[in-house]
Amino acid sequence: MNVRRHLISGTAAAAACALGLGALSACSSSDAAAGGSGKYDVVASFYPMAFLAERIGGDHVHVTSLTQPGQEPHDLEISAKQTARLQESDAVLYLKGLQPSVDEAVAQSDVKTKVDAAALTTLEEHGNEVGGHAAAHDTHQGEESGGKDPHVWLDPVRYAQIAQGVGKALEKGDPDHAADYKKNTAALVQQLDRLDTSFKNGLAHTKSKVFITTHAAFGYLAERYGLTEEAINGLDPESEPSAARVKDLEKMAKADGVTTVFYETLVSDKTAKTIAADASLKTDVLDPLEGITKKSRGTDYFSVQEANLKALQQALGAK
Asked: What is the pLDDT of residue 214?
């Protein structure tokens, strides 16, 4: 069996504690690593990766997320404690390009199984306007584009591709439980296929095909279902839009029959509400699913995505 059981030597434990690395089981029994449970130990960079590990791994895995609930994943600076935790794991699941500090820690670690979700599907370059008629007249690509768009998990089809890759990695890393990983992966992919069908059917006939968001997180979803996402900010949710961009959005909203400006749970809604008030539009939540909190409209990936679908149907005037 390939699972490392994380039995830390007395010397290593003393060194870890001296550095304040309390997350290791040798230092703190309240936050023990998976070593005591005998489970395959997976460190995930943020919620969409942790969700895959938990659903595919089931009872055979112990999953730790580096990004805490309510924390903006783009802003994560991995701590020494988390670096040590990652180093002691059997596998790490992350999305290269989203969290630079995680990318660096993974590159420097000797974890046997490193799963980069970005390598399991295709990433594209997205500007502030994505999908539909975007290619014809997005004049802000160079100004506020963030390059390769990492938000692939919001497209159920791409997320299913990632799930299949994660399943194969767990089968290889922990062959004793390969049959269960394969079965769990197949069940998850089927559920994602059903979600894809719900989005496809639910957004097929709408009065408008354009929606405005604060954060350019929904480009892949827009492209998948024939919509156009107009983002106030770029791929960085904390960036501020230019005055020209705001003016263009207000003009576009009137021309394309836009009713709603969407904001998200983990970032301030101030800009969305200001633009909505100036253009006499409504505001609502469209969740980029970077973390689950008490404010989330759902308790997991699927329930939040179903809430996203309902919000889009209402905003776009689904028939």
From this structure: 85
Please report the pLDDT score of residue 141 as a whole number. Answer: 38
Question: Given the DSSP bridges, would you call strands 61-65 and 228-231 parallel, antiparallel or unpaired?
Answer: unpaired
Q: Are strands 61-65 and 40-44 parallel, antiparallel or unpaired?
A: parallel
Contact 138/85 with Cβ under 8 angstroms?
Answer: no
Q: Checking DSSP bridges between strand 228-231 and strand 129-130, what pairing results, if any?
A: antiparallel
What's the pLDDT tens digit per position in 30-59?
234 455 678 999 999 999 999 999 999 999
205-249 pLDDT tens trace: 999 999 999 878 999 999 999 999 988 875 555 556 677 777 888
CA nearest neighbour of 6 among 78, 20, 23: 23
* d(C-alpha 231, C-alpha 146), whole Å: 12
Q: How far apart are CA 68 and CA 46, in angstroms?
A: 8
How far is residue 284's CA from residue 263's CA, in Å, rounded to a whole number? 6
